[in-house]
Write a structure and sequence with these properties.
elongated; mainly alpha; single chain
Length: about 160
């Protein structure tokens, strides 16, 4: 592995680990705290729609599901970049497996502070988000590999993905 790939793998791995901290921070909020954050964001983002008769509860529900998908897309991207740059065999599969386990742990963790439940649907949404992030990572790694090959540096940065 080239030094540049090793540094990129370590950096992405550290960012992925830090992002797990963000995930667990939000899942550690009580139902009251989480609800207040969601309601505030819904009003800030969609207040103009709510003022025109849109269903605030429906918009908040959609925002919460989009947040699940988005935060796990970031984790999937970062972890896939770390494992892909480290050239771990089957890095794509390992990324999805790790993110699926993380989704389960995250959902279980959010039941601890009270007022929140564990949702298998949210676990699937989280894993779908991770898949989107990992696919974006795979596309970026492929582009980096192609650019490297065009420069004559026949270095495959994508490793054995699947």
């Amino acid at each position: 592995m080239q030094e540049r790939d090793r540094r990129a793998a370590v950096l992405c791995g550290l960012l992925a680990a830090a992002w797990i901290g963000v995930l667990f921070f939000f899942s550690g909020q009580s139902g009251t705290e989480s609800g207040a954050l969601s309601a505030g964001l819904t009003q800030a983002l969609f207040g103009w729609l709510i003022d025109r008769g849109a269903d605030a509860a429906r918009l908040e529900f959609l925002l919460r599901k989009a947040a699940h998908m988005g935060v796990f897309a970031v984790e999937g991207f970062l972890l896939a970049m770390a494992l892909g740059r480290a050239r771990l065999r089957r890095w794509f599969v390992w990324t999805l497996a790790a993110c699926a386990l993380l989704a389960v742990a995250n959902e279980l963790h959010q039941t601890l502070p009270g007022g929140r439940t564990c949702s298998p649907v949210d676990m699937l949404i989280d894993t779908a988000g991770a898949l989107i992030g990992a696919l974006l990572s795979a596309a970026l790694l492929h582009a980096l590999s192609s650019a490297s090959s065009r420069k004559g540096n026949h270095d495959d940065t994508t490793g054995d993905a699947i």
